[in-house]
Amino acid sequence: MPPTLQRILDSQLPHPAFALGPRFDILAWNRARTDVYGDPAATIPAHRHLLWLFFSDHMRELIQNWEPSARSILADFRSATGLYVHEPWFTALVRELSESSHEFRALWREHEIGKQRVTSREVGHPLVGRMMLEETALVVDDRSGRRVILETPQPGTGTEDKLTALAWRYDRVQAPTQRTTGQALR
Hints:
The protein has 8 helices and 5 strands, in the order H-E-E-H-H-H-H-H-H-E-E-E-H. By secondary structure, it is an alpha+beta fold. Helix 2 crosses helix 8.
């Protein structure tokens, strides 16, 4: 990950943003992404993948429009990774997700590609309540296959204020620890 890409993600605060690799691995994220969805760093590196995270129980509970979002992400994954279907990492990923998630297994069997993309997520956050986030995917123009995913508040939903409140809470709770230990913020 180039440092410039991390700076782009960080500049989006208080809006969630993250970067995906061509295999849908989560390469980097900003603090707002952690505030809203949880910290990908707490996940083992092999599962720091959009599908692994999205088909987790945590995301299933957090995202109120989970099923249409899951269908959309899966269709997008199929479309973007069609050239890799015979590679060992691809078959291992599908096998492991099929074994661990009955929802993944059922949706994978439907073979959806190119359906209407879901670009709005309804998140039921345990601290601030309902938020509506609109997703925009930008392709990084360096032939790496990376994408930057930006999530912006849907106007008129109060989501902007809730994201600001989460950022403020994080600054108040985490900043003293960060100063004490010298750890860098994400």
